[in-house]
Design goal:
It comes from Paxillus rubicundulus Ve08.2h10. The protein has about 250 residues and is an all-alpha fold. It is about 45% helix and about 0% strand.
């Protein structure tokens, strides 16, 4: 599969097509059509997060056939862009009885998901995301950690929480303000974002952003359980969909 920043970057092949900015080369997997940056190929209607298209093995097979039958490099590149497929996967060499087939055998990686979400949320809180000339970081009321002194104090608070954590959590988390860009581990990011963050950001992050954040945390924590009931799984899906729906309206 192509990378997540491509036009068809979903690795479970759900069929959601990403959007592209004017004169840009990077595609963004957002579900709503940009209001002022609608370009050819990115002018499709909004997707409903509560009713996303499911992956189709038939569609994948047809698109793979189109790709491998490309007569030249130009056509191959064109088909790779339109299908989101780069080559035939090794798993197709297995007996069909040993696999659910593509894309049904594909899954997301919760470790990378935790890291990517943490990076996104921390970057928003600290005002570290690049923006267009029409935007201004100073106007971001969610960037509550953008001040250097506040960020340093916050990092100390993260480190001090270690004395209140049970031994099963392992070692004490490092000061995130000092170690974020120099070896902050995935387990530390996950612990911070999905356990410590809601406590440390209480009464600091404005209510509408805090509520949206806690919705994500609740859904994510359910997904990390060793055992999940069907009822809890349905609740997790609902919470994560609510988070995404609220997130795009708060930040886009």
């Amino acid at each position: 599969m192509v990378g997540h920043s491509s036009k068809n970057g979903c690795h479970i092949y759900c069929g959601v097509v990403s959007h592209q900015k004017t004169n840009g080369r990077h595609y963004y997997p957002i579900l709503i059509k940009p209001q002022d940056h609608c370009v050819a190929g990115s002018d499709h209607v909004d997707y409903n997060v509560f009713d996303l298209p499911s992956g189709s093995s038939h569609t994948y097979t047809q698109n793979l056939k189109k790709l491998v039958s490309s007569p030249n490099q130009t056509q191959y590149d064109k088909h790779k862009m339109s299908t989101g497929i780069t080559k035939a996967p090794l798993i197709l060499g297995m007996s069909p009885s040993c696999s659910l087939g593509v894309p049904y055998c594909m899954t997301t990686n919760i470790m990378h998901l935790a890291g990517n979400l943490s990076d996104l949320l921390i970057s928003l809180r600290c005002g570290m995301i690049d923006c267009d000339a029409t935007d201004a970081i100073d106007s971001w009321d969610w960037a509550v950690l953008s001040d250097g002194a506040i960020w340093d104090t916050y990092g100390v608070s993260v480190h001090k929480t270690g004395s209140h954590l049970p031994g099963s959590f392992g070692t004490q988390p490092c000061n995130i303000a000092k170690k974020l860009t120099s070896g902050y581990k995935t387990w530390e990011l996950q612990l911070h974002t999905f356990s410590l963050g809601p406590i440390l950001l209480y009464n600091i992050l404005p209510d509408k952003y805090f509520t949206n954040y806690c919705t994500l945390v609740c859904g994510f924590q359910i997904m990390c359980q060793h055992s999940i009931t069907t009822k809890s799984l349905v609740s997790a899906q609902s919470l994560l969909c609510q988070w995404e729906h609220g997130f795009k309206h708060l930040y886009y």
